[in-house]
Amino acid sequence: MSFSRRLLQNLTIGFLLVIQLLPVVFAEVPLVAFEANYELFYGKLKAANAQLSLSQSGNNWRWLLTTQPKGLASLLTSKNPYSETIFARVDGNHRIQELIIADDAEKAKEVETAKFDWNSAQVETMRKEVTNNLPLTGDVYDNLSIHLFSAKMLDENLPQASVEFYYKGRVVKSELKQLDKTSLTLNEKDVEVMVVEQSVQDSSTKYTYYYDPGTPFIPMKIVTGKPDKKATTWLYVPAK
């Protein structure tokens, strides 16, 4: 696999990065609209800037993630990976309605979509121009909505949990566990953070999320990678 293709894959998958089905109403951790900026590093190389946002329109909420290659990476590709997840309150729960993943936000060429029909308990997926219909047997999360489940884990002090997870056109099992607290230096300020590690069925990629307890579903740092590959690191950039 070429460096540019592998980089785009890490940037897109590593943080798709941005949540699809919420099985409970988060009374203790209310949803709040926000925008958060990040710097992305592939190993030690700065590869991109990114923005993650959560916004509300009526009964719908929308997660949006955009990335823009920088430095050497911008010489290897001009694509700006993009993803969004839309969810709404259904029968007292927040449930994903649709997700879109594109390899270029400006051209809006869709690489992957998923449309969830909770009345018929099915999800219609399209990945790499191949469509499929999958049964839904329970609550489902994705790489964006997982941050809200992490907030639930931290709020209820759950040491570990197992969830259904949408991943590359399939619904698979995913395991999450809390790790020891640590501290991050952000804008020359030390911040104590909670840490959640995630693994996904049939994947060797690990995801490690670092959260400020004051903003529990906005990651301060994300590290993703396989054991034998360079890691992709997302670092939160505090607003000035």
Overall description:
This protein is mainly beta and about 240 residues long. It has one domain (about 5-235): outer membrane lipoprotein receptor (LolB), chain A (Clam). The chain contains three helices and 15 strands. The chain has a 15-stranded mixed sheet. A hairpin with a 6-residue loop joins strand 14 (about 220-225) and strand 15 (about 230-235). It is globular. The model is unreliable at about 10-30 (pLDDT under 50).
Report the order of strands and helices: HEEEHEEEEEEHEEEEEE
What general form does the structure show?
Answer: globular
Low-confidence stretches: 11-28
Number of helices: 3
Named at the architecture level, the CATH assignment is Clam
Give the overall average pLDDT.
83
Tally of extended strands?
Answer: 15
Largest sheet: 15 strands, mixed
Strand order in space, largest sheet: 8-7-6-5-4-3-2-1-15-14-13-12-11-10-9
What structural class results from the helix and strand content? Answer: mainly beta
Distance between the termini: 39 Å
Strand content: over 45%
Question: Roughly how much helix do the residues carry, as a percent range?
Answer: 10-25%
In CATH, what is the class?
Mainly Beta
CATH topology: outer membrane lipoprotein receptor (LolB), chain A
The total number of structural domains is 1
